[in-house]
Amino acid sequence: MTDPQNGDAARRSTVEWEARIGEQVRARRLDEGLDQISLARLADVSTSTLQSLENGRGSTLRTLVRVLRALGAEAALDTITPTSTVSPLDLFRATATSPRRRVYRARGSRTARGVRDASQRGGPRRPGAGDGDGPGPGPVTDDGQGAGPR
C-alpha cells in the first residue's frame, strides 16, 4: 500500500510527518500568494507559531485547523477519515436472515430428567394435603417420645 508520490507512509516517523505537513502548508501558502505575516493574521496565530508549523517543529491541532481554514483548505481535514457510505447497522440488518429466537422446552420434557408430574404420582392431589395452601392436618407436635403428630 505505498503511494509512489508519498513514499512509504507507514514507515514515516512523527518528525517526518510534521516536516511533510509543514512543507505542504508552506506550498499552499505560496500558491495563494501570501507571506507568513499575512497568513498568521488571517489564521489568528502568531508568526512564530506559523513558522514552527511550516518548519515541522511541532504544532497544535488547533493551529493546523486555523491555518488550513485561512488557506481555504479545510476540505483536507475531511480526507483524514473517509465518510462512511454504508451504515454498520444497515450492514448488520442485511446479513441477519431472521431474528434470534429463544428455545423453549415443552412441559413434558421434564420427565426425561426423572422428574414426575402430578399425573404420574398416583392420582390427583387433594387440596390442603400438606402443600401449605389451605387447612391441613395441623401442626406436627413431638412429645419427645417420637409419638408423631397428635
Explained architecture:
- The structure is a single chain.
- By secondary structure, the protein is mostly helical.
- The chain has helices at 14-31, 36-43, 47-54, 61-70, 75-78, 88-95.
- The protein has a domain at 9-78: lambda repressor-like DNA-binding domains (434 Repressor (Amino-terminal Domain)), CATH 1.10.260.40.
- The chain is built from six helices and no strands.
- Helix 2 (36-43) packs across helix 3.
- The longest helix is centred in the N-terminal third of the chain and has 18 residues, at 14-31.
- The chain is rod-shaped and about 100 Å long.
For the record, give the distance between the C-alpha atoms at the N and C termini, rounded to a whole number.
Answer: 92 Å
Would you give the CATH topology of the domain at 9-78? 434 Repressor (Amino-terminal Domain)
| CATH class identity of the domain at 9-78 | Mainly Alpha
Quickly give the CATH architecture of the domain at 9-78.
Orthogonal Bundle
Which homologous superfamily in CATH is the superfamily of the domain at 9-78? lambda repressor-like DNA-binding domains
State Rg: 40 Å
Broad structural category = mainly alpha
Beta-strand fraction estimate:
under 5%
Biggest sheet statistics: none
Low confidence ranges: none
Number of helices: 6
Outline: rod-shaped
Mean pLDDT level: 76
Count of β-strands: 0
Helix and strand pattern: HHHHHH
User: Helicity, in percent?
Assistant: 25-40%
